[in-house]
Amino acid sequence: MSKWFINFFLLLVSVFLLSASIPSEVNSNDPLGEYYSIKDHPKAKGVNLKLKVPKGWEILEGDRPKVVVKFLNGSDVFLITVAEAETFFSKKSAKELLSDDEFTNELISEVNNSNFKFWKLLSKKEVTIDKYPAIEYSIRGRGERVGIEYEIIVKTWYFIYEDKIISLQGSTIDFSNISNKDRLYTLIANSVILPDQYN
Amino acid sequence: MKKYFYTDGVSKFGPYTLEELFKKGISRDTKIWFFGLTIWTPFNEIEELSQFVSKLPPAIKQPSIPKPPSIPSIPSSNNNETNRKPTIWKEVIIVAIFVVVIFSLWVAFRKSEPKSKDVYEEIVSRSYDSDEEFEMYLDKFYRDLGVLGIYPTKPSKRIIKFSNLEEIADATHIHGISFGHNNEDLIEIYINPTSWNKFNRAQKYFLMYHELSHDVLNLDDLEPEDANKGRLMFPNIESYDKISMDEFIESYQKLFEEVAAERQ
Q1: Residue A123 lies in a domain
Q2: Is A11 within the bounds of a domain?
Q3: Under a CB-based contact definition with an 8 Å cutoff, are residues B163 and B191 in contact?
Q4: For residue B39, which phi and psi values (nearest 5 degrees)?
């Protein structure tokens, strides 16, 4: 009886300590709000992905075919795009591909050459998005629309989920508090969950 | 003393002495055999008995002409007319034996070849349409073959359906079955819905690519040995409790690479 009581007491203490050591998700300093899921979205191509939306930001439908959804706050935008890959990639083969500088440099050039008159790579590194190998890169670009020139900073995470290419892209044309924005975009990318990898 | 046998065309009788033979009501045309004759021969054609022909009456009726044995069997000493049975019974017995043999062969045949036909008909009769997007698996299968330079014919006749295989005695353990093997004009696959509903995503892909590899690439199952476990054509998918998409992707890509190498 006493042995059972001691075990039960130790279990209670463990649970208490464990819960106290994990930061609460409901934190007033946390700029992120509720999860948003693109599951069953017609443009998600069957991808089940969820991520947290910054508090106070609008959630809007993507304007372009591959843009599933965008989160908007003034001139700050966060896009989620899903495109078809030419075949399936395991995590291992995706990592091999994304570790290939020649491939990733070409990819980054191709995307940005079509969008900007001028652009400059600020950073690039291999990271992980919810267990999936990814590349993270930032560029500063100069573009033009209807005669209006603008400068933009774009931070992108690009990864391959099975046979889909997913990119998460945070951007701003307002360079004030740029480090806070960079941190916010990173937090959004870090909140990504791909639940179907466990099914 | 020489012994003689005679036949009525069906049975043989004897041995008898010549005197006894005359008492058996034989005629000049009755066929006789004794040691030394190679075939049954009418009494009046046996040279050494020609002197006795006049003792026998000529045949009243045209005798039946049974086929003589080419080599006479050695007569049993117990044979005599008391063992004679009516000819009709022998025919009935022969016909009965023939019928039994034919029936046995038919049953044996039904248990082998036609059985698969029966199972096929049962599977088809238990199949039904559903909202499951089987075509999506088919499209991806062809896409992934194309990436490796394999371009099999995509037939216009494609049947991929659920079928309640667990209701069929011979198919309870089957997750899916393909009938389009070696038929370029047809893809015909039936999936067990019970298996499907308990499979995870990777197992579903595994099952579909496995069946499509049978159907489109005409590949056979591998032996169910541990060495083959994890490969796409390993037949015991139920042994994969938790297969991941990565495992599925690596297994099908390995197979397709092998197929591509063979076809080059």
Answers
A1: yes
A2: no
A3: yes
A4: -135, 160
- Residue B151 CB coordination number (10 Å): 10
The answer to whether A88 contacts B252, with C-beta atoms less than 8 Å apart, is yes
CATH of residue A179: 3.40.1000.10
Report yes or no: A27 at the B interface, CB cutoff 8 Å.
Answer: no
Please count the other Cβ atoms lying within 10 Å of the Cβ belonging to residue B250: 18
Total domains in the fold of chain A: 1
Q: Residue B106 burial (CB < 10 Å; 0-12/13-18/19+)?
A: exposed
Q: How far apart are CA B138 and CA B188, in angstroms?
A: 12
Helix (H, G, I), strand (E, B) or coil at B220: coil
Place of tokens 């008995």: B49
| pTM score of the predicted model | 0.68
Residue A199 to residue B200, Cβ atoms within 8 A:
yes
Q: Tell me the β-bridge partners of A124.
A: A137
| Residue range B176-235, pLDDT digits in tens | 999 998 898 999 999 999 999 988 899 999 999 999 999 999 999 999 888 898 899 998
In a domain, A155, yes or no: yes
Residue of A nearest to B250 (CA): A90
**Alpha-carbon gap, residue B175 to A80, rounded angstroms:** 37
Domain coverage including residue A89: 26-198
What ipTM score was computed for the predicted complex, to two decimals? 0.80
Phi and psi (nearest 5°) for A129? -110, 110
Tell whether the torsion through CA atoms of B120, B169, B210 and B159 is positive or negative.
Answer: positive
List, for residues B91-119, the tens digit of each pLDDT value. Answer: 888 888 888 888 777 666 555 444 566 78
Provide, as residue numbers in chain A, all residues whose Cβ is less than 8 Å from the Cβ of B250. Answer: 90, 92
**Would you put residue B80 in left (φ > 0), alpha (ψ -120 to 50) or beta?**
beta
Report yes or no on A51 lying in a domain: yes
